[in-house]
Design a protein that fits this description.
Layout: E1 4-5, H1 11-22, H2 26-38, E2 45-49, H3 54-65, E3 69-73, H4 82-90, E4 95-97, H5 103-114, E5 120-123, H6 127-132, E6 143-146, H7 149-160, E7 168-170, H8 175-198, E8 206-210, H9 214-225, E9 229-233, H10 237-245, E10 249-250, H11 253-259, E11 262-265, H12 275-278, E12 285-289, H13 299-305, E13 306-313, E14 316-321, E15 326-330, H14 336-339, H15 346-365, E16 374-375, H16 379-392, H17 402-409
Parallel strand pairs: 1-4, 2-3, 2-5, 3-4, 5-6, 6-7, 7-16, 8-9, 8-11, 9-10, 11-12, 12-15
Antiparallel strand pairs: 13-14, 14-15
Bound molecules: adenine (ADE).
Adenine binds near residues 53, 55, 185 and 338.
């Protein structure tokens, strides 16, 4: 078997973490059980470019149980859990991923999974899809799936300019993905990463969240719960107003730069904090990014302006500016939740990855009807995923009475 990982000897440690995550993934477990019986993916190569984590490992094993031949490469150079990569290889699933790999190796690994001529590609950030539309236009696939807001934005841009040549399922757009993973997953794991890297007490800190989408809202909400004084920076007036009415201070980036102690970017856009903002920050300000790419902070300018750099803790770098101020950067400005912590907990990846498995099945079942455009999974799938998850949490679901069903479908009954 062809693979490229850092530490095969960590397979035992990885297997334990994969098992632990699996215990918190009841929805994926039920999909996996059905997949075992029905084998809907039989004989299809599925190439996944996802964060190589214990949760992803459970997805890979569910795909395999559905009859697929899964392969995995990393969707970020710094998010690979080397022990998990080793555990998957020991399970017979090829992995091409090494934590800390350079850009050349990262793309070598992307091409390695594509060399297996996948029927379906699975992305977190649209890197496989992008390569399929540039260097590897020779490959024909049934379709692709996409996990994140950032990836869906990239793919919609491809669709808008007529470049998109494969059907794509936007997994991110399923309610049981973005309402939970983006909010609760990013909210908790982002702070987890910052806390592991700094060991700071968040209570009483001025914590600036740049971007108030599903992810930003989650971060602001969780930081508020830990006692931070949250400031939101947002360009969309409706979202900014929502942040204000959620009880947060809303400021321009310039104002927030001077006020903040900790800054977290979650916008999906580039250079949302730049030198003009770093120039206004306090000595000891902490920068972290939880957006998909490491472009939200203008790090080239920060590095150029600093007179020295040192590692002060694991995943924490300190930049010294000419005027003596120190700016701290968590996890190299890469996704802080996966760079400095373990990513979203399994409880929430359970739903995201059930949707991924069901999206692969959807592409394969409907392959003759699909066109090169962006699809969302049917609402019934969201309802099934939610129902199983709710049951696993011990929640009961109320049912409409016949009388209520008739009332909702009629219009005559008033006061
Ligand atoms: N994205 C965010 N958290 C993740 C996790 N735990 N596994 C895979 N992808 C993720």
């Amino acid at each position: 078997m062809n693979y490229d990982i850092a530490k095969p000897e960590l397979a035992g440690d990885g297997a334990l973490r994969v098992e632990w995550a699996g215990r918190r993934m009841p929805v994926l477990d039920s999909v996996r059980e059905r997949f075992r019986a029905e084998r809907p993916l039989d004989g299809h190569v599925v190439a996944a470019c996802l964060h190589v984590t214990a949760e992803t490992a459970n997805l890979m094993m569910a795909l395999r149980d559905g009859g697929a031949e899964p392969l995995l490469c990393a969707s970020n150079p710094l998010s690979t859990q080397d022990d998990v990569a080793a555990a998957l290889v020991a399970e017979g699933i090829p992995v091409f991923a090494i934590r800390g790999e350079d850009s050349e190796t990262y793309y070598k690994h992307i091409n390695a999974v594509l060399d297996h001529k996948p029927a379906v590609t699975m992305d977190d950030g649209a890197d496989l899809a992008t390569v399929l539309h540039t260097d590897r236009r020779d490959l024909e696939v049934i379709g692709s799936t996409e996990e994140t807001t950032t990836g869906v934005i990239r793919l919609r841009a491809m669709a808008a300019d007529g470049t998109l040549r494969v059907p794509v399922v936007a997994v991110n757009d399923s309610a049981t993905k973005h309402l939970f993973d983006n909010h609760f997953g990013t909210g908790q794991s982002t702070l987890d990463g910052i806390i592991r890297a700094t060991n700071l007490l968040l209570a009483g800190q001025n914590l600036v969240v740049v971007g108030y989408g599903d992810c930003g809202r989650g971060v602001a909400d969780r930081a508020d719960g830990l006692g931070a004084k949250v400031i939101v920076v947002e360009v969309d007036p409706v979202r900014a107003l929502e942040a204000a009415m959620d009880g947060f201070r809303v400021m321009t980036a310039d104002e927030a730069a001077a006020a903040g102690d900790i800054f977290i970017t979650v916008t999906g856009n580039k250079h949302v904090l730049r030198m003009e903002h770093f120039d206004r920050m306090k000595d000891g300000a902490i920068l972290a990014n939880s957006g998909h790419f490491d472009i939200e902070l203008d790090l080239a300018s920060l590095r150029a302006a600093s007179t020295s750099r040192r590692d002060v803790r694991n995943n924490l770098e300190e930049y010294l500016l000419e005027d003596g101020r120190r700016i701290l950067l968590v996890a190299e400005g890469r996704l802080v939740n996966l760079g400095a912590a373990e990513g979203h907990p399994a409880d929430v990846m359970d739903m995201s990855f059930s949707n991924q498995a069901l999206a692969a099945e959807y592409l394969i079942i409907n392959r003759d009807e699909l066109e090169p455009k962006i699809y969302t999974l049917p609402r019934e799938i969201d309802e099934q995923v939610s129902s199983i998850k709710l049951e696993s949490l011990g929640g009961g679901l109320e049912k409409l009475t016949e009388d209520q069903i008739a009332y909702l479908s009629g219009w005559q009954e008033g006061t």
